[in-house]
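Consider the following assembly input.
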Amino acid sequence: MTVSNVLFEIGLEEMPARFLNDAQKQLETKTKQWLEELRLPYKQVKSYVTPRRLSIVITDLVKKQPDIEEEAKGPAKKIALDNEGNWSKAAIGFSKGQGQSAEDIYFKDVNGTEYAFVTKFIEGKSTTELLPSFKEVITSLTFPKNMRWSNLSIRFVRPIRWIVALNDEEVIPLEIAGVEASNTTFGHRFLGEKIEISDASDYENTLKNQYVIVDPGAREKLILSQIDDLKQKQNWDIIVDQDLLNEVRHLVEYPTVFFGTFSEDFLAIPEEVLITSMKEHQRYFPVRSVNGELLPFFVAVRNGDARFIENVAKGNEKVLKARLSDARFFYEEDQKQTIDANLNKLEKMVFQENLGTIAQKVERVVNISKKIAAHLKVDEQIEKNTIRTAEICKFDLVTNMVNEFTELQGIMGEKYARLFGENENVAKAINEHYMPRHSKDNLPSTTEGAIVSVADKIDTIIGCISVGIIPSGSQDPYALRRQALGILQIINVQKWNITLEDLFNLTLTIHASHNIRTRDEKEIRSDVAAFFKARAAFIMKDTNVEQDVVDAVLTSGIGNFSYAIQKAQLLAAKRQDNAFKEVQEALVRVLNLASKGEDLGVKEELFENEYEKNLYASYKQIIDEYEKAIANHLVQEPLNILGTLSKPIHDFFDHTMVMADDKKLKDNRLSLLNKIAALIHAFADLNKIQWKQQM
Amino acid sequence: MNIQEMILTLQKHWSDQNCILMQAYDVEKGAGTMSPMTLLRSLGPEPWNVAYVEPSRRPADGRYGQNPNRLYQHHQFQVIMKPSPDNIQELYLDSLKALGIDPLKHDIRFVEDNWENPTLGAAGLGWEVWLDGMEITQFTYFQQIGGLEAKPVAVEITYGIERLASYIQDKENVFDLEWTEGVTVGDIFYQPEYEHSKYTFEESNTDMLFELFTTYEQEAKQTMEKGLVFPAYDYVLKCSHTFNLLDAKGVISVTERTGYISRVRNLAREIAKLYVDERERLGFPMLKEEAKRNDSI
């Protein structure tokens, strides 16, 4: 046999489930790299992870590195041989240095000169010699958290307890953290035994017989198929959250699905609470009827087989009952409070050291919301609701329930607000003001929710930037990036008539009146603008608009963001539209020359030819209509109007020497071009676009 | 199995593993970890194996004896082994078997739970152990204590006695648990639970407590300056408990809270360092092998 099967299994105390997906990937990639560096061909590398093991099976690994013949170049022939034709010292030294003798030297022509050469033969090493270096693969694995144990100084994810390292049936000698490799592994912690492995290629099956499913994919399939059976049998809909499934498969070596029940009385608690309690605390899958109502059952996964599973179900029911009793207690206690009493407690809750308490933040959010509502001219009822929403949007932060389940902030606010008699839109908006909570989340559906959401987020962003908390790299503790994206998405979808600059200004004004600014206002303003510009560019690129078009649209600020996006999309299309080529060339010509001067005022009496006159007349004819179109945020219309200037512009350039020797004439012409350039800039800086039309 | 038998079983089990059986420490504390038998002794190079029951006071968890699961004072069974033995998980699982919990009839899991106690500048990695979904034990490899690196690493096992008993005795209300034949937890602890809750939430003298905190803090510092580790540490524990009483009463704002925690933490850090220095000065007497002792000094 020229190939062998190799197995490495590192046995550990239970590793954190959340590390295992990445650990498996690293293990496979790093093993492959290692084999490549060793120049060892193989048929397959397969990695496995369970809570207690990191394993690799290499199939059909060639037993010996291929031999290598390597040619080494030495001195030139005239140096290698002395006058008598004998080997010189230089030649003998060279051949020795290469582990050969002078007799092995031959000559070869290189660019017209003959040089001494020898051919080196490097014999491939055997895997027996090479495989112990697998230790480096293991110690190179990285984990989000490492630990030390006993009196060792090694840091690893969890203590290493055994190592299996087999090259066919031969043990590969290696040692990590004082543990020597052997052919002995351990099965399932309770159902399995200590066994010897004789055949690496049968690893999966051998461990399966010991109640360990080493392949996480197989464990997931087992869980899903058992859940499916239960669904069929009980006529249930079992809610399988992918993240939870992923975690659960890494908590067990031998999954067995079971279900339990809880008292129907608990269904009076909001279902978000029940689901969060089941998922977050207990890692259970909630159960719904086929009509979608939550049922008083849960589905869980045991690490073991089906024997005595009724005990396990009963124990879990008892635990869930205690959890839900707590939740019910919180729910009832929270309802004994009033919104005002909760708001008072916010005065003791710090938002950020330099930005004051949550109560102070709420005050700012109220004022910002008022200003946005006024700017948007919303009707009276919406304005009233918006202010109320802003005033009470954080009251649930001090409830027992949110204290226990932070992820229910807003959700509980909505429920409690309704119970406390707030109107429906206010209740809904309280929850919505946190939206979007993540990149794929819904946006607020109510105007009230949208306004307070934007107000809350812009207060946080500008507040943080004002006190020097500016996201960099992976550092973004207040999730400012996500919040900025949220603001832009909301403004875009709501099609609000507000520019980002208006939003910055009104927020900065309010911050000034609350005395929270600590840096120079100019710096804050420029940091905020740059921060939002990067987010705006991110959103635009997400709609397949390229950087040059983004730059063209955002040159003079973001302005009205939904308008900016529409312009960007139109320009992205025009960029390769042949029909637009002529117009584009005319406009770009204007921009290029306009940059050589400025608008000093056009004097009609200085026009020398009819093309100048004509261009100016055309300009005057369109300007009102054009400005109206821009003011109304029309997208196609401004370009159509500019298009009417295309012929006059080309005619002008064909018959006019702009850079005339006579300064007066030159200035006059540049002034005219600058007037037109100003119109173009009001739409976008077309000069920044790399036009891609066909010739 | 009643609670008394459980404690005896655990004591026997860990005594067989050469743990020193200690008694509860006589200063109020929030957790068994805070006993000097754990917190100080886990530091430094000397081996240390100990087991003890620790009554732990959590004023904020007081429920006037009305809540079936929460207590002002509960009991922990605490095990410390330094350096952590290689078969510690097996030793622990054997202790469950000794308590009559057959792993084949249950679902026992080690679920990641990293422990951190900022007040003590302590942190560790490990798990909470689940028995059929219920957390019954905290299992921690100390990595840092009082801001110092733990080396060698001590492993800490903390059983929640009432939790475990409610499972073993199949009782839903903690006050119904049998402590010993014919005597329940309620018989012994209902009155103090009620009174401590009433005291903590309604009757405590806030001004006095604030004063005490400062007094204890000063005394701790002063005693430390004299190089007296253990008396100083007692005052740190008193600071910590006084803080917990104030915190439970809701008279410490969030901003102040951080301030108080860091004051206690600073004391704990200084004491940790002082303890190691003092032990070194004494020549690490519990390091029996002379070679090791010479290495460490």
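The CA atoms of residues 448 and 576 of chain A lie 41 Å apart. Ask yourself how this observation constrains the way the partners meet.
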